[in-house]
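I had to read the description of the data format several times before I understood it. The format is easy to grasp once an entry is in front of the reader. For illustration, here is how one protein appears when written out as sequence plus structure tokens:
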Amino acid sequence: MSVLVNKDSKVIVQGFTGSEGSFHAEQMIEYGTNVVGGVTPGKGGQSHLDRPVFNTVEDAVKETGANTSIIFVPPAFAADAIMEAADAGIKVIITITEGIPVKDMIMASDYIKDRDCRLIGPNCPGVITPGEAKVGIMPGFVFKKGTVGIVSKSGTLTYEAADQVVKQGLGITTAIGIGGDPIIGTTTKEALEMLITDPESEAVVMIGEIGGQLEIDAAKWYKESGIKKPIIGFIAGETAPAGRTMGHAGAIVGGSEDTAQAKKKVMRECGIHVVDSPAEIGKKVAEILG
């Protein structure tokens, strides 16, 4: 059983005809993802990459039955794109756009919270279920099907972890890149919950960063849940200077529990197998599942 996306996902691309949307839509189609069309206001009725273009998400859903959307809309308009997708009945909204104003994301998060949809991102690499669907910007060839789920704040560390797991002769059920912004749709805990309760996932790799409480919340939930399925954890940013934003807008230490050391301590106390270097992720997974 996959999580969030699979071979039955009907995917539309918002910002379809732009350079980013075009490039990644083509990669997704080549991977085998069921991309059924795209949205670019004012270009409805045209065809792009042999797929129909629609003016609105509502039109796209009516015509194609789309249930999943990936957003490559520029930052100033991306929050509107998220709300439009939610309004049109899209169930999984994956937002790649980086640099969406925090004020806009607060409004979009509030708007969609009572609607039947799940937002992944923004500022994320997307979601991949190997061999079925790649709805994102990750290099598909790195991921092979298997029994290890991945939830990560970092795009590049998602690919690194997947590569290491595959090189150990294992593979991935679904990898979820949740994004590194201060306001995101799906939290580490929520993504972890989906993967840990997925019957095909025998273990989960959880990659976090300094800043915020997401990993702490996930670790505490795991301990309280009583679930024995193993989690392998890593926190990036051990050597980051205090008070400095590192890479992601959300990766800034605001309190004593935000540091890498503090997060790792709590994670260990909650029964998570924490590694101190990203180079150790694959070996630790193999050792535990061995």
